[in-house]
Every structure is written in structure tokens, then in C-alpha cells.
Write a structure and sequence with these properties.
463 residues; 13 helices; six-stranded mixed beta sheet; 21% strand; alpha/beta
Length: 463
């Protein structure tokens, strides 16, 4: 659910050019002749990580309501009425016109908040137009060049409070818990992957045996897991006890140097594709062999692909020294997978069925975390506190300034931080911010991306 932002202004002030700039594509026709745009055009825009619906409107003209320009004006009025914010664009080089003043009077009478933009502001020719625009009564104008991308960072700062207010008021859409969970079971040969799936299904659906490498193709099976331990809160959230799962059994993945057979190479490649298309990957370990380097390689590949990871230790019913084994694997995982802390680790038995419900509970929970979005206001409040508690270093006596953060996407959660001199930011400070996101914002146990960049000319060469 995204906020609606409408671009309003008289004909030929550059509304469609700004629209194209914000959506990152040339969707709207642009020409020197006025009146090219007639109908409302909508697109999804991303401004330095802020996502919103942007609406390009026809040029507002003072004509009879029954005429074509009058009907176009009516469409513009409807767009503004349904928007969370209006971007009022004037031409800085042309200066203030009587029609600009009429549009301003109309906008002041509407309930939609307004941000005033003075377009075509590159160079000195627009200086008088910028000064004149104060008379419209919308506060400080934002000079920009929609054609060249200048002033975009200032536009972000002006729009940000309205987008944050919308996000705070709107309920975050929960993950659709009714959609099938795409769950891949991976691991080394003979770890018990097919046996575990057969136990989940309570039928001999897949061939099993003591021989390693029986499974060659990635086999997908539809299943419904009955969650007997559903909490009262989950029930109130509309989660049903019967939850759909798409189980994917994969070929055992040996160390690459040991894979010589062409068919096995194809099987391993198929297993890697299964990881790419899964939401959650269960890495099955063999309790009789412990954690090996190949297990860490598979886990690392899963994390690099941005997939949720759950680690299950199979054959727990025959494990020797289970408590020591579990703690040893936990410590080795924390050391070997330092980029993702608190990956769920669960003891299971494909033979008895022990731990299957815990694995499924962890899988659905990590998918929920993996899919969540933090409101921009809450995210930046954490960010400001984190910087105040531990300011960025000043290499060479020059301060690194980190200005704001946005969540660019989910699945996996990806965050973008904007600032100056960010190329000098040490890796240790990146880890500090990443760990803060995990601990303070509830992203523990899932892979996340943190990108740090400068906001200068972010849309350069976008056209």
C-alpha cells in the first residue's frame, strides 16, 4: 500500500519530465508544446528509497468545464483530492504567471498538503522566479531541474515527512500466511533429506536407502502442515492451523572437487537452483558426522542468495553426547556464519519425527521476519539514536556524515544509507549498523543487505 503523490501545474512547466525522472523511465510523453498530457498517468516511483505512486496530471487551465481543457482540469482535481501530497510545479525561468496564482488559490482551499517546486532552476535565469514563488504562500520553494536531476535530494527531504506519516497511519500488510511456504531441504549426501520428507508426509513418497546420492532431481511435493502449537495471538492474526507448504527435496551436495560424474554435476546444479527459488532453506546435518566445511559452504551460499536458513541436526536419536554436540555446532555456526547471527538450530530425527514441528515453526517465523518492512519514521529514529550513541569516525580529521536510511525492499530485507564521504566508512562501523538493525528492529536470524551511498545526483544518466 503506497501513498499517492500528484504533480500539478499549468501546461509545459515540466510535470511529465519530473514524472519520468521519478519513475526512472520515459513513460510520459514530453514535448515543448503545451497540453501533451491529457489523462492522468500513474507509476510507481522510488526516490532515494522512498516508494510511492506518482500521478502525472494534465496542465491546469481556466476553461469551460464542458470543453476538453475543462474536462482535463476535472481529472486533475480528482487526482489531487485522492492524493496524500501535491507537488505544485512552476517554471522558474518564466516566473510567476496569473494561472500559477489561480492554481495556488485553488490548492490552498483543498485539504491536500502542497510542496512547491520551481522547475528549470539550473543557472541564473531562474533566480527571479524562485524569489517570486514565495508570494504563493507555500513556504520555501524547492529549486530543481527535472531534466538534469538537480535538487532531487532536497525534494526527498521535503516529501519524507508526508511519506513517513502515511506509513505510520497505515497498517503494514502482514505476510500472507495462507500462501504456500516454499521450503527446500538441502545437505550433503545421505544426511536423510528424503527420509525426513517421507516422515513429514507420513508416506513413502520418495525413495530412500543407505546408498548416497539416490535423489538426483529436485522433487517438489505439496503438503499441509498442521500447527498444533498455534498461539492465541497467531489465531487472532488470522493464521490457520493448517498451513500449506511446497516441499522440495534436493540431491546431496558434495564438495565440488569430489564431483566428477556429469549426472551428479547436473543434480547439484539443480539443487542450487532449488535454493534460488525457495523462501526458506533447511540445511540438514548428520549428527553422526557433525558440522563439516561443506555444510558451511552450503549455508553460506543460501545466505548469499538472500534466502532464510534453518539448520536441522538429523539422526538425533543415535547421536553421542548430544548436549556437547549441539553446543559445539552452535559455536561453530556463530563463528563460520558471522554475517547472520541466531540462525535457528534444531535437533530432529527423520526416523521418529522428533523436531519436525519445531522446524516448521521456525521456517514460517523466519519467512515472516524476512518479509517485514519497517516504517521509515521508526527506522530513522533508530538510525539517529545509533549515530548519537556511536558517531561515525573522522579519518584524517574529516567527518563522515550519515544523513538518513530507508528500507529499499524486503525478501531479503535491504537498507540504503545516504551520507557524505561514505567510501571512508570502515567495515567495523558497517557491522555496528547491521547488528543494530538485527537487534533493535527484529531482523535476527535472516540475511539482510546494507548499502551505503552518497545522495549526490542519484538519478544521473537515469534517462
Amino acid at each position: 500500500m503506497l501513498p499517492n503523490i500528484a504533480i500539478i501545474g499549468r501546461p509545459n512547466v515540466g510535470k511529465s519530465t519530473l514524472f519520468n525522472r521519478l519513475v526512472g523511465k520515459k513513460l510520459a510523453l514530453v514535448d515543448d508544446r503545451p497540453g501533451v498530457t491529457r489523462d492522468r498517468r500513474e507509476g510507481v516511483a522510488n526516490l532515494l528509497g522512498l516508494e510511492f505512486n506518482i500521478i502525472d496530471t494534465a496542465g491546469y487551465e481556466d476553461e469551460d468545464a464542458k470543453s476538453l481543457p475543462g474536462r482535463m482540469r476535472h481529472q486533475t482535481e480528482l487526482a489531487v483530492a485522492g492524493a496524500e501530497l501535491a507537488l505544485f510545479v512552476i517554471d522558474g525561468r518564466a516566473g510567476l504567471t496569473p494561472l500559477d496564482e489561480e492554481i495556488a488559490r485553488w490548492l490552498r482551499g483543498s485539504k491536500t498538503p502542497v510542496v512547491l517546486l520551481v522547475n528549470k532552476a539550473e543557472g541564473k535565469a531562474a533566480e527571479s522566479g524562485i524569489l517570486e514563488s514565495y508570494a504563493l504562500g507555500f513556504g520555501d520553494p524547492i529549486p530543481l531541474s527535472a531534466e538534469h536531476g538537480e535538487g532531487i535530494a532536497d525534494l526527498f527531504q521535503a516529501m519524507r515527512p508526508y511519506i513517513e506519516a502515511f506509513e505510520a497511519a497505515a497498517q503494514d500488510e502482514p505476510v500472507d500466511e495462507t500462501s504456500p511456504l516454499k521450503l527446500a531441504i538441502v545437505g550433503r549426501p545421505n544426511a536423510g533429506k528424503s527420509t525426513l520428507i517421507n516422515k513429514m508426509l507420513d508416506e513413502d513418497r520418495l525413495i530412500t536407502g543407505p546408498e548416497a546420492g539416490i535423489t538426483r532431481d529436485s522433487i517438489a511435493v505439496e503438503w499441509v502442515w498442521h500447527d498444533e502449537a498455534l498461539t492465541e495471538d497467531e489465531t487472532l492474526d488470522g493464521i490457520e492451523p493448517d498451513r500449506k507448504v511446497r516441499l522440495i527435496d534436493t540431491a546431496g551436495m558434495r564438495k565440488r572437487a569430489k564431483v566428477n560424474d556429469k549426472l551428479e554435476k547436473l543434480s547439484v546444479a539443480d539443487a542450487k537452483r532449488a535454493i534460488d527459488f525457495a523462501e526458506v532453506v533447511v540445511l540438514l546435518l548428520d549428527a553422526t558426522k557433525g558440522l563439516e566445511a561443506q555444510d558451511l559452504r552450503i549455508a553460506d551460499q543460501t545466505i548469499q542468495e538472500g534466502r532464510c536458513l534453518v539448520i536441522a541436526i538429523n539422526k538425533w536419536d543415535v547421536a553421542e553426547g548430544p548436549s556437547k554436540l549441539f553446543n559445539g555446532i552452535r559455536a561453530a555456526l556463530d563463528d563460520g556464519l558471522a554475517q547472520v547471527r541466531d540462525v535457528p538450530l534444531i535437533a530432529v530425527s527423520a526416523f521418529t519425527g522428533k523436531g519436525i514441528d519445531q522446524v516448521m515453526k521456525a521456517a514460517f517465523n523466519t519467512r515472516r521476519i524476512w518479509s517485514q518492512r519497517v516504517p521509515t519514521g521508526k527506522l530513522n529514529r533508530w538510525f539517529e539514536d545509533a549515530i548519537e550513541d556511536n558517531p561515525p569516525p573522522a579519518p584524517g580529521g574529516k567527518r563522515i556524515k550519515l544523513r538518513y536510511i530507508t528500507q529499499a525492499k524486503t525478501r531479503p530485507p535491504s537498507f540504503v544509507i545516504f551520507g557524505t564521504r561514505v567510501d571512508d566508512l570502515p567495515e567495523s562501523y558497517r557491522r555496528y549498523l547491521t547488528n543494530g538493525i538485527r537487534k533493535k528492529l527484529g531482523f535476527g536470524g535472516v540475511p539482510l543487505r546494507l548499502i551505503i551511498r552518497s545522495p549526490k545526483n542519484p538519478y544521473h544518466d537515469k534517462d
